[in-house]
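Section 3.1: Structural characterization of target chains.
Under the original work plan, the team committed to producing a structural model for every single-chain target entering the pipeline before any wet-lab resources were allocated. The record below documents one such target. The sequence was received from the expression subgroup and is listed exactly as submitted; it comprises 556 residues.
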Amino acid sequence: MSVLRLLSLSELARLREIIRILIRYGLDDLVGYLKISPLIAAKDRILLRRAPQNDPRPVRLRKALEELGPTFSKLGQILSTRPDLLPPDMIAELSRLQDRVAPLPFSEIERILEDAWGIPPGEVLSFLDPEPIGQATIAQVHKATLKDGTQVAVKIRRPGIVPKVEADLAILSVLADLLETNLERSRRYRPREVLREFGRILRQELDFTQEARNLERAAHHFRDDPEIVIPRYFPDYLSEQVLVLEYLSGIKIDQKERFPEVGTTPERVARIGARAILRQVFEFGFFQGDPHPGNILVMRGGRIGILDFGMFGTLSKSWRNLLVDLLTALSESDTPRIVGVLRRMNAVPEEVDTLLLESELSRFLEEYVNRPLCEIRVDLLAHELFALSREHALKLPSDLVLLLRALVIMEGIGRQLDPDFNMIEEARPFITEQFLRKFSLEDLLRNVKISSRTAIRIFSGLPEAAERLLEKAAQGNFRIDFSLRHLDDLIREIDRTGNLLALSILVSSLVIGSALIFSASLSSHSSFKTLGLIGFSGAGILGFFLAIAILRSRRF
């Protein structure tokens, strides 16, 4: 356990606390896999195991994560967005994770604001509601009013949470190393890679300046759309710990019985909401990663307000083109092309059996061939794709998984609002437009320009590279290393086949030679008759062993 030496004494104490909680919830097998149980006394392990465990494993894991605190609760919440890694029952349970945090005292809120702004909050705000309108693991939100009468929402990060999160991330990093080292079957789920991604997302959510940039970017994208509202932030009061936003007043998108109050209908809201997420994906390549009902408001006049850009995904133009290629291949049931696109996404590891994957894809697509578009649901397609990903250990990019999850959530909201809502039908014009844009004259010219620059750079460097190569050759330092992997089986097969071929030639030569000798001995009454018979006997024995070898190989 030399990797544990990377932890400080306080981190080791925290690790012991983590072990105790895991054992108390009947997750000591996980502790065993990590080989960290010796960190606590044997008698403590026995006492902790005595607690009755009647709940299913996913429930026990959720409760353990809740008790372990903010970082682990957030880990569970983010893992609940990764159905490509975890089975449906685990995803469903982790989605129920609750933030076990008490609201900060109002005096603490005032102190944090004064530290962030350098002046008492009363000089900025004419009103600050002492009761939070929302609270979670990382922050809590209070309604307030600026001196000029503007209603705002003040988002405040919990004090001391950053060092706690960093300490927990250090411990989780060590645990991920231990898991990959000690449990071979865990490697297909790439714990280290998943943890790095988790750390990146969590650090972004802890930095409110990042969320402000996301809001600014989203507002720029929707600047000409009268049906979409992105709350503006106030840069004068922005810090890593405090974010002041325009307060949006409206109805949660899942409260359709109240839509007449703001002059709209569920059908219209469903289509505006779908168009908003589809524009983010296909037009902007930047989308809100968590469009649950609490983050979407229906405002007066039927406008849609989008809140909370702490979690977001990005798709470059190249990735959007790959996405269109994937959707096109899926619609045409072209399994080799689907696998090809997944390979271009670096989603198919080398060890994956491509033929088996194509076969599984064909079976999956057969269920959707010749179905009307209105019967195809994004959630069912995503469920099948994630099941395939888990079965074949595919490495689906996190932004692609986040995108599919966002579409599934939006489809669910749309179907609640309008039973006839179909996300694929809504997405069709966006996919078509992206396909046409891919082959537009502007994009073709841009690709030609990029390719030309690359070619010029390569060719301009050729003389210098050739000169260096010739100098090395002249100095006797020229060497080419070949690394041929996974050829052992092929070499053995060639070797065996060569041996069988040589034996076959030897048997044939003996038969022909013996026949010639035997026929000569008959015509001349020569004594070579015995030699001919010996040759025939040897050829027969060798031929027998040759036949056995061929029959054993089962390749005839």
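The first helix runs from residue 9 to 24.
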